[in-house]
Design goal:
Layout: H1 3-14, E1 20-24, H2 30-38, E2 43-46, H3 49-58, E3 64-67, H4 76-79, E4 85-89, H5 92-104, E5 109-115, H6 128-136, H7 138-141, E6 146-153, H8 161-182, E7 191-196, H9 200-205, E8 210-213, H10 215-218
Parallel strand pairs: 1-2, 1-8, 2-3, 3-4, 4-5, 5-6, 6-7, 7-8
Amino acid sequence: MSIADNLLKYKKELEDSSAKLVAVSKFHDATAVMEAYNAGQRVFGENVVQELVDKQAALPKDIEWHLIGHLQTNKVKYIAPFISLIESVDSLKLLTEINKQALKNKRVIDCLLQVYIADEDTKFGLGFDELVELLRSEEFLTLKNVRIVGLMGIASNTETEKQIRDEFQELRVLFEGIKASFFHKEDSFKEISMGMSSDYKIAVEEGSTMVRIGSNIFGKRVIKHFKAE
């Protein structure tokens, strides 16, 4: 099946839900992204900053780019002029840097706070207590050029559906609690980004508003190594 056919399949599956499709184009070239674009896709997710910057320069400007991978503070400046959403904010230090670079670019950058929900050591994210501590901090209240629009989480890489479902449920319950406590007046705080190729159906059932799907749309990735800036 072509990229366009794959996209159509997912869009059809998601049309009865409130979940938006983020096509994860990391390690796929601009030609592949353009094929998805021509099939109507406008929201793309990238992990590697250098790759994202190169694609953004080469591709149509109405694409909505999401940074979905771990972001180092020294890389924020490269994406601050154009990024639509940073899904993977996992510290106050990073959020402060995003605010600084957003201010330099005279814009407000939308962010999701990444929450650690998996039973794995390899995942990034804030613990539940750390999340609350961040939102209560005086420093957070001074950040005027970032807007927190929701939470993101990655479930454990497991075949056990119950565990995945439990982790997604935890994130949804946390989202509802955080909204009630900190964002009850903010209509913009509405996103729960959870679910990837292997578990997106469970995520949608548990209230996901964004699913991140890559290889099932674009095919197998060709891993490239990018030089550090």
